Amino acid sequence: QVQLVESGGGSVQPGGSLTLSCAASGYTITTASVGWFRQIPGNEREGVASIDSDGTTMYAESAKGRFTIFKDNAKNTLYLKMNGLKPEDTAMYYCAAESSSFRPFLGTVVGGRPIYDYKYWGQGTQVTVSS
């Protein structure tokens, strides 16, 4: 049974930092396409950062220069280090893994909604940025 378990969320002040973790079990993320997404209630899920199976990393414009996605293969864990957090970063953050699509982080719009073709998703960890 594959499980992705996120942790590391919390409440921070603007300008603060958090590092989210996504521990995988029943599945090896070493060469998998993996990514971080976030969602605010009432909004569509959006991509934050990804590492594809070919090692290519991608970031949302809002994340560039502030967030870093990386893996620890020995721990079979995916991370998202977030610096310079802003109130607009407040959201539930999800990790995702395994895709047969090319650049799944970019998503496909179906019926006006973005669909991200990842097979496994975690339950999410809440990040709140406020003063």
Please give the radius of gyration in angstroms. Answer: 14 Å
Give the beta-strand count.
13
Residue fraction in strands: over 45%
Number of helices: 0
Secondary-structure element series? EEEEEEEEEEEEE
Average pLDDT rating:
95
Class based on secondary structure composition and strand pairing: mainly beta
Approximately how much helix is present in the residues? under 10%
The largest pleated sheet is described as:
7 strands, mixed
Which regions are unreliable across 5 or more consecutive residues at pLDDT < 50? none
N-C termini distance: 40 Å
Overall geometry: globular
List the main descriptive attributes of the protein structure presented here:
globular, four-stranded antiparallel sheet, 131 residues, seven-stranded mixed sheet, single chain, mainly beta, 0% helix
Summarize the structure in words.
This protein has about 130 residues and is mostly beta strands. Helices cover about 0% and strands about 50% of the residues. The chain contains no helices and 13 strands. The protein has strands spanning about 5, 10, 20-25, 35-40, 45-50, 55-60, 65-70, 75-80, 90-95, 110, 115, 120, 125-130. The strands form three sheets. Strands 2, 4, 5, 6, 9, 12 and 13 form a seven-stranded mixed beta sheet that branches. The chain has a four-stranded antiparallel beta sheet with strand order 1-3-8-7, with no helix packed on it. Strands 10-11 form a two-stranded antiparallel sheet. A hairpin with a 4-residue loop joins strand 7 (about 65-70) and strand 8 (about 75-80). The mean pLDDT is about 95.
